């Protein structure tokens, strides 16, 4: 039946209860009305879905005055519940059917907020209901609410049949909302031969299955068939093809970027249940629902038998650190999950969109978004914690910000650390001077202890701070007084891996001791100056070393001299240039101008500017075969190649180890549990190595050192790499 102009005007807004009441009042009582798809056209496809299931609980939402329910009732389907939010039409339908169809149920109810228990129905029959809610001006909000309700009240294995004109905005919603865990088929409804309808009706059937499973859509819409609106049919066919490509990608094992809505729909299964080792990438937030959008990764800890501090936490990664291997790689992210002590961790990555946002605003914006990702945990009552990559600094005083064409922006700062776990073991606060490379924000390239300058300060270096001090940040507190009275303490090792480098010299302790006894100087080359901490420590600790530092960036020498007390003399020099070329050019030179049998030490302590790689130290070309061969020639008959290695990717580490083994006969590793650095010691021969008497060698080295270093303790971690 066609609508009159008066009736059409009454329905300018298909989502308004008042408009529908007005519409049904104008139409009067006792007459059925079908917007499209009359019973003769839909009877056969509909009954094929209900064949032999007369006892099925059927729900007809947005029933209006359609004759659909009475047709089904008269065919033996008695358990039919009809709902509509118009009291006028429900009252009219009750008067018409109460006596002749007494088992038919009618309810005044909003189909977007139905008062039925979960899983109440076996079959939901929608004929134009969704189309009415999906007015383009209204958007998808009401349609989504309705479909959420329909899915909620449908039993597992139940069917949802939707008769629709399949306009693009309606079809897009249906395809996405029933993408995960639903088996979907679609077919076109045949038109009456005499019909001159401008639109084609389609029937979509969705069967409720297992959450997270993705099925391709079974389409009975044939591109070669004749439809009343070919343009409409072709648009549907094209949309189905695109949707099936999306569904195939979900089944291909590719790491898909999900939306929050996808996860709410069950894309990765039940979010309330933790699945050990589950990792999924997603986008949080969308225009209109949040201030910002965020890229995030949801990760369920691999070992759920551990004791967790949090059942679920949020870890925010600042833009400046997002490309670091620890946060950018899957392997690194699992390390973050482990250290966060959370059964489920949601890592959120900030980018340029959040540059001007206050972190408290970001947390407030994220809070409602991450709530849907929280697993069910009855005992947990505390709000979900927010964590953030931080350096634990309590107080910071920036001394200088400089930019180098080679290294990029750098910061020199004095800091006081936060008191960790209420540790009061150090009564006097200590201040540290740090050099930070901003190209990898958070990377403290060098750290030096500041001490008060005193004219009568006769330093007993054996009682000064040792490398062990660097392992207890909890003892780092501020130093009061004028900074003019402070100087860098070069007997302090700010990095535990520097301590490992010193301890590893035990491997050639006898050669070092013999050189010291004979008054010979041991040629030591360090590639990478940094703030000068390591060469200054070695210079004071082992005075008989002849140290040459190779540094590519001239500005590093200026910074080290001005802020970190670095100074040169006859036994400590700096060569400005490329470290790889320097070693290549000096591969055949004789140390100290003497015979090539003398022991040599080559230390590579350079960080990489490529933070997306698993190899953070050294740059990749320092572990290429060409450089390693040059290093072997440089060391000649003996000595040590020492490499500071930061390879958080196990595959990259194994590659480096394999290359070193191929060039050097002897390879050792020293790695401390609390540090990501691993120090490798390679030698072309056993000539100077103390392999069989490491305990004695460690004692011998300790006796030579002018500063206190816990050699014996560190050397217990030395391993030979076969």
Helix content class: 25-40%
Beta content comes to 15-25%
State the secondary-structure class: alpha/beta
Number of strands: 28
Which second-level CATH architecture of the largest domain applies? 3-Layer(aba) Sandwich
The pLDDT mean sits at 84
Overall 3D form: elongated
Tell me about the largest β-sheet: 9 strands, mixed
Organism: Triticum aestivum (Wheat)
Family: Belongs to the methyltransferase superfamily.
InterPro entries: Lys/N-term_MeTrsfase_sf, Methyltransf_11, SAM-dependent_MTases_sf
Protein name: Methyltransferase type 11 domain-containing protein
Topology (SSEs and partners):
Blueprint: H1 5-10, H2 17-27, H3 39-50, E1 58-61, H4 68-74, E2 80-84, H5 87-97, E3 105-108, E4 121-127, H6 129-133, H7 141-153, E5 154-164, H8 168-177, E6 182-188, E7 202-208, E8 218-219, H9 230-250, E9 257-259, H10 260-264, E10 279-284, E11 294-300, E12 313-317, H11 325-328, H12 330-340, E13 344-349, H13 359-371, E14 386-388, E15 393-404, E16 408-417, E17 431-437, E18 444-452, E19 486-488, H14 496-504, H15 509-518, E20 522-527, H16 533-541, E21 545-551, H17 554-564, E22 572-576, H18 579-585, E23 600-604, E24 615-617, H19 625-635, E25 640-647, H20 650-663, E26 666-671, E27 678-683, H21 694-704, H22 711-715, E28 718-720
